[in-house]
């Protein structure tokens, strides 16, 4: 899932300071799962914005809406009859949402209420960790299902570096060294020799380095 954090109330208040009537739009996808942009968070932000502006004695009218997803034209279209009734729209989806909205409704102004951070998952209640960097050509089968691109601070494909210390990365005692985990797992399974060959440099053209990417599913296009 995509993990995000909500921006500070002051930052969002500043974004909408010139407007008097706004729509806050949430998303039932990843941002609901990571408790950042779902129904509850939309309600909290809308109430907080109203209170914030009331304190400034400049009341703000705020409506709330939640879409199934903001990364799908099918759901974005549900705003078509209301979107122009507002001075601006605040999106609580990941960075994809406000961009889809902005492209669908060129006459409206859209603002992001969240910072999109990484692809990851919940390791315990309320704690999410990064697991994938979206490189476009997965190679974790060489590393026992653990990703050194997303989880090694240097994205080393031939680790460890000299900084690993008792299972922790040299950048912080709070960050696991993924290469320590990879090596220990190989030892536990009696397969350490798997790591003897040097992993060649990766072709990064499938990652962001090759420019914006596009996915095509011909069977869906033909059947659509
Ligand atoms: S190798 Fe690439 S696709 Fe696979 S988990 Fe790592 S970053 Fe993600
Ligand atoms: S200590 Fe481990 S995780 Fe950190 S940079 Fe070195 S090999 Fe990568």
Task: Map the helices and strands.
Blueprint: E1 2-6, H1 9-15, E2 21-27, H2 30-33, H3 39-55, E3 61-67, H4 73-76, E4 88-91, H5 96-104, E5 110-112, E6 114-124, E7 127-132, H6 148-151, H7 178-188, H8 218-223
Parallel strand pairs: 2-3, 2-4, 4-5
Antiparallel strand pairs: 1-6, 6-7
Named at the architecture level, the CATH assignment of the largest domain is 3-Layer(aba) Sandwich
Per DSSP E runs of 2 or more residues, the count of β-strands stands at 7
Chain oligomer state: single chain
Instruction: Could you tell me the CATH topology label of the largest domain.
Output: Rossmann fold
Bound molecule kinds, no repeats: iron/sulfur cluster
Task: Give a written overview of the molecule.
With 224 residues, the chain is of the alpha/beta class. The chain has two domains: 2-118, 3-Layer(aba) Sandwich (Rossmann fold); 133-210, no CATH class. The protein contains eight helices and seven strands. The strands form two sheets. It has a four-stranded parallel beta sheet, sandwiched between helices. A three-stranded antiparallel beta sheet has the order 1-6-7. A hairpin with a 2-residue loop joins strand 6 (114-124) and strand 7 (127-132). The radius of gyration is 22 Å and the shape is elongated. The model has no long low-confidence stretch (mean pLDDT 97). The structure holds iron/sulfur cluster (SF4) (2 copies). Residues 152-154, 156, 159-161, 163-164, 169-170, 177-179 line the site of one iron/sulfur cluster.
